[in-house]
C-alpha cells in the first residue's frame, strides 16, 4: 500500500474511534507507522488530512454501478443496494462521528455526503430510465423513490447495532427494501422462494 493510502486508512480508523479532537496527529502517525512530520508534509494540516481521508472513503471509483440499459430491474437494484448497504455498514463509525460533530465542524459534512449524494443521483437516474423503458409506472417520482430506498439503507446501516430487532436479516435486508420500492413503482416482482414447512428439519434429521 502506498504511503499516502496508508495514512488515509489510519486517519479514518482513528477518526471513527475518537472523533476530530481525539484523532491527534500522533495517534494517526502511530496507526500509520510514520512520524508526525510525514503527515504535515503530505497533507499540511490535521483538518486537511481528515477531510482527505473521509473523501477517500466515500470515493465512488470502486462502487458498483447501475446499468445504462435496465434489464432485470429487481436483480440490478438488489445487487447495487447490497453494495451500498455494505459500504455504509463498514463506514458507520466514521459516518456517526461526522453526524455527531456536524454543528461543531460543518465542513466535515461536505466530505461525508459526497458518496451518498452521488449514489442517490445514480439511483434516481436509473429509475428514470426504468420508467422510460416502460418497466415501471410513471406515477411515482424517481427522486422520491430513490430517497426512500436510500433512507431505508442508511437507517438500517446506522441503527442495526442499536435496534437489531426492527430490521430484516442483514443478509436479505437490501433485497427486501428493493422489493418494497419496486412494488411501489409498479415493477414486476416475482415471489420469493419459500421453504416447505418442516423441510429444513427433515433435511437435517439423521438417517435411520
What does this structure look like?
The structure is a single chain. The chain is mostly helical. Helices cover 66% and strands 0% of the residues. The longest helix is centred in the middle third of the chain and has 26 residues. The C terminus is likely disordered.
Give a short synopsis of this structure.
By secondary structure, this protein is mainly alpha-helical.
Key terms for this structure?
Arc Repressor Mutant, subunit A; mainly alpha; about 210 residues; elongated; about 65% helix
Sketch the topology as an H/E string, one letter per element: HHHHHHHHHH
Largest sheet, in brief, is: none
Shape: elongated
Q: What does the radius of gyration come to?
A: 21 Å
Helix count, DSSP H or I runs of 4 or more residues: 10
Uncertain residue segments:
199-208
Structural domain tally: 2
Q: Strand share of the residues?
A: under 5%
Topology (SSEs and partners):
Blueprint: H1 3-22, H2 25-32, H3 36-43, H4 46-57, H5 73-90, H6 92-100, H7 107-132, H8 142-159, H9 173-184, H10 199-204
Amino acid at each position: 500500500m502506498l504511503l499516502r493510502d496508508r495514512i488515509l486508512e489510519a486517519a479514518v480508523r482513528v477518526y471513527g474511534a475518537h472523533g476530530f479532537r481525539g484523532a491527534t496527529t500522533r495517534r494517526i502517525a502511530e496507526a500509520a507507522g510514520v512520524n508526525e512530520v510525514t503527515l504535515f508534509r503530505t497533507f499540511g494540516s490535521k483538518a486537511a488530512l481528515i477531510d482527505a481521508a473521509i473523501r477517500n472513503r466515500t470515493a465512488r471509483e470502486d462502487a458498483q454501478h447501475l446499468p445504462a440499459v435496465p434489464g432485470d430491474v429487481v436483480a440490478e437494484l438488489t445487487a447495487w443496494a447490497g453494495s451500498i448497504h455494505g459500504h455504509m455498514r463498514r463506514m458507520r463509525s466514521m459516518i456517526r462521528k461526522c453526524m455527531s460533530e456536524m454543528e461543531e465542524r460543518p465542513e466535515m459534512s461536505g466530505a461525508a455526503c459526497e458518496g451518498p449524494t452521488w449514489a442517490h443521483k445514480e439511483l434516481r437516474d436509473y429509475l428514470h430510465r426504468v420508467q422510460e423503458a416502460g418497466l415501471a409506472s410513471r406515477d411515482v417520482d424517481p427522486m422520491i423513490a430513490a430517497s426512500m430506498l436510500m433512507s431505508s439503507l442508511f437507517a438500517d446501516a446506522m441503527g442495526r447495532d442499536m435496534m437489531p430487532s426492527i430490521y430484516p436479516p442483514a443478509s436479505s435486508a437490501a433485497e427486501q427494501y428493493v422489493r418494497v420500492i419496486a412494488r411501489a413503482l409498479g415493477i414486476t416482482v416475482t415471489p420469493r422462494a419459500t421453504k416447505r414447512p418442516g423441510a429444513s428439519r427433515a433435511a437435517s434429521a439423521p438417517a435411520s
